UniProtKB/TrEMBL annotation:
It catalyses: ATP + protein L-histidine = ADP + protein N-phospho-L-histidine. Its EC number is 2.7.13.3. Residues 251-261 have a biased composition (Basic and acidic residues). Gene3D superfamilies: 1.10.287.130, Histidine kinase-like ATPase, C-terminal domain. This is histidine kinase. Pfam families: CHASE8, HATPase_c. One of its GO terms (molecular function) is phosphorelay sensor kinase activity. Residues 213-458 form the Histidine kinase domain. Keywords: Coiled coil, Kinase, Membrane, Phosphoprotein, Transferase, Transmembrane, Transmembrane helix. The keyword Transmembrane helix applies. Residues 238-261 are annotated as: Disordered.
Length: 466
């Protein structure tokens, strides 16, 4: 844009100079014509009477004008009556004498000398060349203004270029700062998530160690109680009268036998209730040990797609007719894990999905291959090949607070008596103990997806032995 403006200014300056030059030439010619007319009127009588001295006096008066280069007066016979020329200049010839045509030189004018209606001669005046200094003085103003304007435009162009480069540099700097700020925010968010995950891991580890220690001690006490109750029950079944702590007595009548039998039946009932409570308490300790990752496992190579197909009737029976199960079993890679615990894990997840859809719905059980590398990272797992198990429902979903606490032991959203809060925590402990990763993706109104990722172990899956 500035180059265009500079070009326009140069063109305007050139046009102004040309106009000034043309105006000066027209003005000078007009002055020549006026001087020639005055000379012609002055020398008419001298020409008519052929008074060369008088004519020359009028011509010599013009020599005082430095703008004139030459002058000549001719009569009708084409003889020069008077004239002059500057040193180094040629005299003016009567062109009419040569070809009968008036001259058409730009610096030469010709006017007739008339006496009344009769032309008695001709007067010629030729202007001198304008000196260089005069020309420079005449056009210097326009040239100076044009040059100044061009220089100003050049300075503006340079300044604009500098400002443009500075603006580009500032823009790049602002972009770099914005990118750095964005990376910093991402790193801060990542650090916050990592710190939260670390705190959660430390919390779970502490709870797991505490739960594992309590479970071991509690399990030992349960074994002592269970053994004592088993021995007591065996003695009652053998009819040992010392079982109730009283000495043997002689046989009694029929009524006494009936009373003792009723009392023994009540004792057996109480023993059965106690045994059931101990079994449930033992199951609870096993869950605690599973969460603490201290339960004994029997890992073997198995394919999750085959395992899901094997327990398909059990899964469909567990959810009932109001829930549809969609199986998407696309992976055939084996993993190393405890088959019984994995069956319980899948069954537990399916039952939880069913409970999240009280009005019925659809559950998707998917198994597919997964590759973790630099382009597809997953926090908490090294690069490699994995098998991805997911259980998806379209139920009510979880809030973010519930989702964060879902794997914590004894945390449940179910009513009192409907859940222990150890289901997902047990699954979490089992998966971590199997060198895998468990996570939850959920939100209010958009259902829940439980992700389980286990490392692929090359080899042939071992069929389960009945």
């Amino acid at each position: 844009m500035l180059l265009v403006a500079a070009g326009l200014l140069l063109i305007a300056g050139a046009l102004a100079a040309a106009y000034q030059y043309h105006s000066a030439r027209v003005e000078r010619r007009h002055q020549l014509v006026t001087q020639a007319n005055i000379l012609a009127a002055s020398v008419t009588a001298a020409i008519a009477f052929d008074d060369r001295a008088a004519a020359q006096e009028y011509v010599n008066a013009l020599m005082l004008d430095p703008r004139l280069d030459a002058a000549a007066v001719y009569n009708e016979a084409h003889r020069q009556v008077a004239g002059f020329q500057r040193a180094g200049s040629e005299p003016i010839a009567d062109s009419l004498a040569a070809d009968g045509r008036a001259p058409h030189q730009r610096q030469l004018v010709e006017v007739p000398a008339r006496q009344g209606a009769t032309t008695v001669g001709r007067v010629y005046l030729r202007a001198a060349d304008t000196p260089l200094m005069v020309q420079l003085t005449r056009y210097s103003g326009v040239a100076l203004l044009t040059i100044m304007a061009v220089l100003m435009l050049a300075v503006l162009a340079v300044a604009q270029g500098v400002l443009t480069r500075a603006n580009d540099a500032l823009h790049r700097r602002a972009t770099e700062l914005a990118d750095a700020n964005e990376r910093l925010n991402i790193e801060m968010a990542q650090r916050a998530r990592t710190e939260e995950a670390l705190r959660q891991s430390q919390k779970m580890e502490a709870i797991g160690q505490l739960s594992g220690g309590i479970a071991h001690d509690f399990n030992n006490l349960l074994m002592i109680i269970k053994s004592s109750l088993t021995l007591l029950q065996q003695k009652l079944l053998q009819g040992d009268p010392s079982a109730d702590g009283t000495p043997a007595s002689p046989p009694r009548e029929r009524g006494s036998d009936d009373g003792r039998e009723a009392r023994e039946q009540r004792i057996r009932h109480y023993l059965d209730v106690a045994q059931d409570g101990i079994d449930r308490a033992a199951s609870l300790t096993q869950r605690l040990l599973s969460f603490a990752r201290q339960q004994p496992l029997s890992p073997r190579l198995l394919r999750l797609d085959v395992l899901v197909r094997d327990i398909r009737p059990l899964l469909e029976h567990s959810v009932g007719s109001g829930v549809e199960i969609d199986y998407r079993l696309d992976s055939h890679r084996p993993v190393l894990c405890d088959a019984n615990q994995m069956e319980n894990t899948i069954l537990n997840l399916v039952v939880n999905a069913r409970d999240a859809m009280p009005d019925g719905g659809r559950i998707v059980i998917g198994v597919d291959d997964l590759r973790i590398d630099a382009d597809h990272p997953m926090e908490g797992l090294p690069d490699g090949d994995y098998v991805h198990l997911r259980v998806v429902d379209n139920g009510m979903g979880m809030s973010e607070e519930v989702r964060r606490k879902a794997f914590e032991p004894f945390f449940t959203t179910k009513p009192v008596g409907k859940g222990t809060g150890l289901g997902l925590s047990t699954i979490f402990g089992f998966i971590v103990q199997s060198r895998g990763l468990a996570s939850i993706d959920s939100g209010p109104g958009r259902g829940t997806t439980i992700h389980i990722v286990l490392p692929h172990v090359p080899g042939e899956a071992t069929p389960e032995v009945a």
